[in-house]
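Page 42, continued from yesterday. The earlier attempt failed because a stray header line got pasted into the input along with the sequence. Redoing it now with the clean sequence only.
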Amino acid sequence: MRRVLRTLAAATASACLLLPLAAAQSSATAATPSSAATPLADPIGMTSGFYTDPYSGPAVWAAANPGDGRAAAIRDNIASRPMARWFGAWSGDIGAAVGSYVGAADAADKLPVLIAYNIPGRDACGGHSGGGAGTPAAYRSWISAFASAIGTRPALVVIEPDSLGDFSCLSQAQINERNGMLRGALTEFRNRAPNTWTYLDAGNPAWIGASTMAQHLDGAGVREAHGFSLNISNYFTTGENTAYGNAVNGALASSYGYTRPYVVDTSRNGNGSNGQWCNPGGRRIGAVAQQGGGAEMLLWLKTPGESDGNCGVGGGSAAGQFLPEVAYKMIFGY
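This time it went through. Structure tokens are written below.
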């Protein structure tokens, strides 16, 4: 990998757009130098753009079905764009899986985006994506191997989507246990993957209020993360997300004295939300070159066409299953 600092312009040339934080943030939402996480490295500047996974669900399907009338559109509009890869129990040996993926990106001088999704009691209150490591001890081993496999190579990692959204079905002891695992994960990445930017997930604008989310983020240790993520696997517009992200930062600033950058998942927000979260019809891939207001980056974190579970237009499917017809319709917004 060519470890040469590059300009932001080079990074924005990829299909995922890097958007710097607004220089003129108000004092209510700007982090003070003493409260900022210790800057370790700039994974954006260490690479020449974002990594496009040649083995994503859309890419594999398009290559296997060249005669399908939908294949070209899916290949050109989805598979050819950088997006995150999710890692969980299905990944097998997590060290080998992460090491192979990050190694391929490193060899191409590109920046990989990874999502760690294996916390015990995952999606506990939703149920569509349940699972995760069997015990906190098993999770600690898993996330340690995850971070170690990245090592000194540059990466972006979103840690445990959904984990801080809905606490309604958890006891205080379970919340404390979950926060301990998330804090531990951040420590592992800080110690074992110094060129990785980590993000805790902060849900979406319609889930819980900004002040409550700020409380959840602080409890989980976001002070030690690079930032937080918004709208993963959801459909809210970029504008709605930046308004929410700025409100979360306002609450972090007023209650805890710091703020954090945030990224927005734009993979499925081209038509906005119709109020449904589980495989709604009529949605559209997002315009990744759209200015994100106060967002640090607009990223495809969910793969367009991947099912949210056995619901909506994905009836009969499992969460994470690639559905070519859904992907095809999302290209055109119907």
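Notes: Residues 202 and 291 are 20 Å apart (CA to CA).
Reminder to self: strip header lines before submitting.
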